[in-house]
Each structure stands twice: as C-alpha cells, then as structure tokens.
Q: What sequence folds into this?
C-alpha cells in the first residue's frame, strides 16, 4: 500500500478540520464550513452552532489584531538579544538615566 506523505499545508488543513469538528455538537447546526486545499482538494465539512460561529468570528478579530500589532511592532529576535545589555538599559532608565 502506498503511504501518502502530507505537505505542511495539508497537515495544517487537517489540524484546522479536526479543531473545528470538535467545537460543536451535531444537534445544534447553524452553519456548514467546507475546507479545501488551494488546489481544490476536499478536506472535509464541519457543522457549527450559531454561538460557535459568533465565537469564532470574535476570535478571528482578536487574531488579526495581534497579527497587526506584531507586524507594526519591531520586536527583537529572541535568538539575537543581549539580555544582559537590555536589563542594564532598563535599570538605567528606571534610575532616571537614558535607556
């Protein structure tokens, strides 16, 4: 039997599918979401309740806000930060000196 190796995109789509599938019970159906890969390949259908649709919409707004803030803020790469120098600069600033 040929075993199919999934691409990172396929794995992400399957993860999203499973997360969505576990949100709502089958007895409260307000919206069906169909997931497909960019090439059109079908991943699955998921039923969501009205409350879950509202909660997911709100969560998307928060996710976008965090992404926009992160993109707008030049956060240092944690692998290239001299933490000792950063702490010293913060201590100097707290003591009335320049950061």
A:
């Amino acid at each position: 039997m040929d075993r199919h190796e999934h691409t990172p995109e396929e794995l992400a789509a399957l993860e999203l599918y499973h997360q969505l599938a576990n949100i709502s019970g089958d007895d409260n159906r307000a919206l069906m979401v169909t997931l497909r890969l960019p090439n059109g390949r079908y991943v699955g259908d998921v039923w969501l309740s009205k409350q879950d649709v509202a909660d997911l919409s709100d969560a998307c707004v928060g996710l976008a806000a965090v992404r926009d803030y992160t993109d707008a803020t030049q956060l240092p790469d944690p692998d290239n930060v001299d933490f000792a120098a950063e702490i010293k600069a913060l201590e100097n600033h707290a003591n009335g000196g320049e950061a």
